[in-house]
Amino acid sequence: PPRDDGDLRSDRERVIDGLAHLPFGMGRSGLAKVLKGGASSPVEPERCPEHGALRHLSQSAIEDTIEELIGEGYIHRDELDEYRRLSLTLKGKKSPV
Hints:
This protein has 97 residues and is mainly alpha-helical. The protein has helices spanning 11-21, 28-36, 59-71, 90-94, and strands spanning 75-77, 86-88.
């Protein structure tokens, strides 16, 4: 399905907002599943406003976008955590992407 034309945020902004609104920490694939939406999402739509916000992208394209944001310093991945949970950096919280 195409993007919702009423939502003017970029895909990158939707990733940042999705991570900010998660009800609990998760890694890249979990966040990508929430943003993709559907039955594989670990979070129900009512628990995260960005659930399905990137349904127009493939799972791998969403994960690639998350990796770009990690590489650019907007998102931190805890490599020591069992689930490699993601969090927003100060740059991710403050800067438009």
